[in-house]
Amino acid sequence: MNLAEHLNVIGPAVALFVGSGTVLLVGLMLPRRAYSFTLTCLALIIAGIWLLVHHAAGTESSALGGAVRIDAFSNFFSIVIVVATLSIVLATRTWADTLERSIEFYALLLTAAASMTILTQASDLITIFIAIETTSISQFILVAIVKDDKGAEAGLKYLLTGAVAAAVLLYGFVFLFGVSGVVSLDQILSFAESAPEEYRLVLLLSLMFIVAGLGYKMALAPFHGWAPDVYQGAPSAIGSFLSVASKATGFAVALRLIYSGLGGGDFYLATDLSRIFVILAVASMIIGNLGALRQTDAKRLLGYSSIAQAGNIAVGLAALTAGSVSGASAVTFFVATYLFTNLGAFLSVHFIRSKLGSSELTDFAGLIKRSPLVAVVLSISLLSLTGIPPTAGFIAKVYVFNAAITGGDLWLVGLVAVAVLNTAISAYYYLRWLRMMWLDEPSGDSAIRPDGWQQTVLVVMMAGTVLIGILPNPLINAAKTAVESLI
Amino acid sequence: MIEDVLDLILTIGLMHYLIVSGSVFALGSVIALGKRNAVGVLMGVELMLNGAILALIAFSRFPPAGTATTAALEGHVFVVFVLTVAAAEAAIALALAVLVYRKRETVDLDRINLLKW
């Protein structure tokens, strides 16, 4: 392979990194801030087109000495990340213009998106660790970018918990490296296939450390403590980025590690790994839903809701013993639907917050009379988060639960039972919010209108949620192809 | 018998390094989870990372039998990157701690409680 071919593989990420540097440089030299918005969109669009070209060509190759690997799986998740970032950049433009540090906001957002793209491609332990840290460090600063009391506090909390989680993840990686003697996932796979029984304990310990470190990224209980605080304290634009893009990469790394590195269901510790995920999923769903019940702040409620949703997605990870790759493709599909569903909800909250200056649930009272479009989009998103047909969230939940049940494993069947019960609990707070918007009297009578880009993005999110709910097959097939390229 | 035990203790091998590494990591996590001062937590995290680095070096010096000979190199490369990342993280952490201190005049985590912890 020559340099051009290497660059082609990591091209989308390079485009984003170059975009980030250009935004900073242009911001230094030219006084007009509007350039940074345009440049950011440009970098994201170039990266997106590049990814689509890779996707259409079905490229599958390793580059940089096996450090990164491009395949249908990395393309799928990278596209999710780039689309999420672009939607957030477009929908929060008015807010970003008022920022004192809007140039840094765009530059860091691009850095985070770029390292997430690398993370979906990373196929050795070193690259995974560096990409996770690059992502996290950009996000630590982004959370505190407004520099108000709550933002600074959320940033510090996010950083301290993140640093501990990174050290724990690293310790797990070190022991995986220690027993196998290699860092690349391909070679770890050939080690895992013939790992002697006496390594059982040390491998299990290392896996628990790794799951803890990644669980932090996915906001799985009991590593969820940061999520409500950070979602509430961070600007809602950053909150939506964390909840969609950051979570997607967490699951992408976990899937690649488990299926490419450890051989998925064939690994002799697969059952133990599945049990760990069952426990984490149950804990996340219960803690997330019970926590959300008594919230009055919309952002904090979405924080708890994202913990519960992470539990739902983790049902698919637990299903790795259920045979074939249905669990993994269910996770992949769920993450893609979560993009539309959760961005719809988060960007609606962002809109209310930027107009009314607060995001208490009471601010949403009678929203249907004040801003029909936002109310409808938010309602569809909430229905989808609950899992009511015909929305994407319904299909995603059915798909994940189905993947878990097919094996007939008692633990997994029990897990699905708990998950269904939790769906009922979650309906309470999602539908209460919905009722407030449709039936309560508005707190103010003035109409509030989203700007053009916000309208477009919100409508796209709503259309995505409904369309996937009605015609899920193309996306399901894409998710299956993506996961099959892992093995 | 006694010579065997002495031999085990005096011939420094992988296990000795791993015990030290594990102790440093454990101490670090106790500090990181127990300290109420943000800077104290950071020092704990640094200890945790150092524990991991020590284990990495030990594993690359004593690779498992029958594995690839590249272990020595990969372990060292890993260490260099971990050190770099740790430095970057510490820089951001101190910047945020200063920001919080300016706002609140404290870095005591029990008193940084605008958001319910």
Quick overview:
The complex is a heterodimer of chains A (487) and B (117). In chain A, 78% of the residues lie in helices and 1% in strands.
Q: Keywords for this structure?
A:
heterodimer; A: 487 residues; mainly alpha; two-stranded antiparallel sheet; 21 helices; 2 strands; 78% helix; 1% strand; B: 117 residues; Helix Hairpins; 75% helix; 0% strand; elongated
What would your notes on this structure say?
The complex is a heterodimer of chains A (487) and B (117). With 487 residues, chain A is mostly helical. Chain A has a domain at 269-487. In chain A, 78% of the residues lie in helices and 1% in strands. In chain A, a hairpin with a 4-residue loop joins strand 1 and strand 2 (68-70). In chain A, helix 7 (125-143) runs antiparallel to helix 8. Chain A is globular and about 70 Å long. The two termini of chain A are 23 Å apart. The model of chain A has no long low-confidence stretch (mean pLDDT 91). In chain B, helix 2 packs antiparallel against helix 3 and helix 3 runs antiparallel to helix 4. Chain B is elongated. Chain B is mainly α and 117 residues long. The chains are: A mainly alpha (487), B mainly alpha (117).
Q: Topology, pairings included?
A:
The complex is a heterodimer of chains A (487) and B (117).
Chain A: H1 3-9, H2 11-29, H3 34-57, E1 61-63, E2 68-70, H4 72-91, H5 93-97, H6 102-121, H7 125-143, H8 149-180, H9 185-193, H10 200-218, H11 226-233, H12 236-261, H13 270-293, H14 298-318, H15 326-356, H16 367-370, H17 372-386, H18 392-406, H19 410-439, H20 452-470, H21 473-484
Chain B: H1 2-10, H2 14-34, H3 38-61, H4 71-104
Helix pairs in contact in B: 2-3, 3-4
